[in-house]
Design brief:
about 130 residues; 5 helices; about 0% strand; mainly alpha
Length: about 130
């Protein structure tokens, strides 16, 4: 009985599970502009940090990229992605910048400065996405 189980039941069980996984995807994988928002957020965060003269370029870019990802996620489920709210994008970016700034630390440990960097990234992403 053990050999019959190994030779017949297990291969068919494996084939059925692999078929179910590969042929029935939940939804197609798409970045939905995530890469663009990450890059835009990183550039805006780095520029904002440079204008403020606080923190390293890499740390400010990381805060901006996190803000870009948060803004993208906040707007990902909307039906009309072009009809975005500036206050929401700036607020989500500020919150993400503050949290990531607290985690990464850096030379400039100002929560207000981290919020400014994130809000700048959220605002730039909002402006660029609404112009399309």
């Amino acid at each position: 009985m053990h050999k019959i189980f190994k030779c017949t039941l297990l291969p068919s069980l494996m084939a059925a599970s692999l078929t179910g996984v590969t042929l029935v995807p939940a939804q197609p994988a798409a970045a939905n502009g995530l890469i663009r928002d990450l890059g835009t957020g990183a550039a805006a965060g780095a520029a904002s940090g440079a204008v403020r003269g606080c923190g390293s370029l890499l740390n400010n870019a990381v805060k901006g990229a996190a803000a870009g990802a948060a803004v993208n996620v906040a707007n990902n489920n909307r039906r009309n992605r072009r009809n975005r709210n500036l206050a929401q994008d700036a607020g989500v970016g500020a919150a993400a910048g503050t949290v990531v700034g607290a985690i990464t630390g850096g030379s400039c440990r100002s929560p207000v400065g981290n919020a400014i960097d994130g809000a700048a990234a959220g605002t730039v992403i909002h402006i660029l996405n609404n112009r399309k």
